[in-house]
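Hello forum,

I keep getting stuck at the same step: I have a sequence, I want structure tokens, and every attempt I make locally crashes halfway through. Rather than fight my setup again tonight, could one of you with a working pipeline run this one for me? It's a single chain of 479 residues.
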Amino acid sequence: MSADVLEVRERPHATSLRAVWPSIFGLSVVFLVEMLDNSVLNVALPTIARDLNASATDLQWITSGYSLLFGGLMIAFGTIADRYGTRRVMLLGLALFALANLAVLAVRTPGELVAVRAAVGITAAMTAPGTMALCFRLFDAENLLMRATGVISSIGLVGLAAGPTLGGLILQVLPWQTLLVMNVPIAVLAALCIRFGIPADDPAHRNAAPLDLPGALLGTGTIMLVLWTATLAVEDGWNHPAPWPAGAAALACAAGFVVRERITAHPMFDFALIRRPQVSAGLAYQAAIGLGLAALSYSVTLQLQLVWGWSPAEAALGNLPQIVVMLAVGPFVEKFVDRLGAHRAGPIGAAAVIAGLLLFGLAGRYGYLWIAIALAVTAAGMRVVMIIAAVTVMRGLPEDRTSTGAALNDTSQEVATSIGMAVTGTIVAAALTGPLAGIGSGGATTHSFENAVTTATLALTAVCTLLVLWAVRRGAGSR
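Reply #2:
Ran it on my machine without issues. Output:
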């Protein structure tokens, strides 16, 4: 064993972010790539369609294939990381991620690009749970954990906001394949930072239980089918036959997963974990945030473009208050929590989210100023809640389940967002007699659309409020 590894293993918890800045930088880069990936490539879809002669279905699978595998496999890879080493799985995932992106240079058909994107989604799911789990390996003090979480998520938000612009600029001078190939040096840089900056996996802190492969397959299938059902419901509507078999299959997988986990001696997922007050409260907060994101991300863009006639570029700028406020609030979350305590700061942040959703639902149709205020208020609350919830979930788990906890944290928000989008899309579709593109053509159609958006937003806000109240109650029980 090398002296470098011995030194890393024996290093105590850091007392500042500056002391471990290469490690924080590496983890931030991993999260940046995850947030950047789809947003960058979406700009290139028209170019890809022309270059590869791709159909609309091909383009859908190029984006959805990545998202489904990424979201569906996170918990499975989280449990694998807890058993075989979080840093080891992260480094392996980054190596395979680089190779998967490099493979785009050999793509000649839409099917080959779908396969490449699927491979990228799988390898990204290998790295995702380790981001928070490895961050918690660096620090012990809760204020430093919140500060580090804020830094990592802020860099990811920059990627989310800058992705379309960056992708558009690159496409002006370079081929679309560059958008994937540029991930290769980024992955290598992240791997070097993590390899030499984060303590090596300690076998004593791993989950020693055998891997439950049937449980992993059933759990992954459940999440992927739920995400796919929500996607089909938004795109085709419930009047189309496609969502129903997918939803039935999701329920069957979920039932099989529950039965399997209850009868096996070594379950992949211990349901006792989510009964812990801190964990269940944090997951409820994340689900509430997911519903809030769904209500805004789906409705605001349609309102700006289809009702008010804004261009896609103008609509993108119209959504900027959300990203800008999230970035601006990030550095102050630690002080806010330190002054009030997480048990007060979390509910206050959640109340801001609920207030912003109500403002959008009731006043968003009357002018952009109301939408901008709603985006800013919800963004401030979301930023606080996201950081508190992530730390709360991770703090509530034993050390040999941190990667699973990180995966649960991310998956709960992603699934809730997909369900919220499906609910909003269903209510809007039910209120319209024609296609979405015709919303701005007549007063009655526009009025029906805006009423449907209000109904959907208020319905999701009600569920969001119930989740928050439950989370507050659970959190109070853990103090």
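The longest helix spans residues 443-477. If your local run keeps crashing, start a new thread with the error log.
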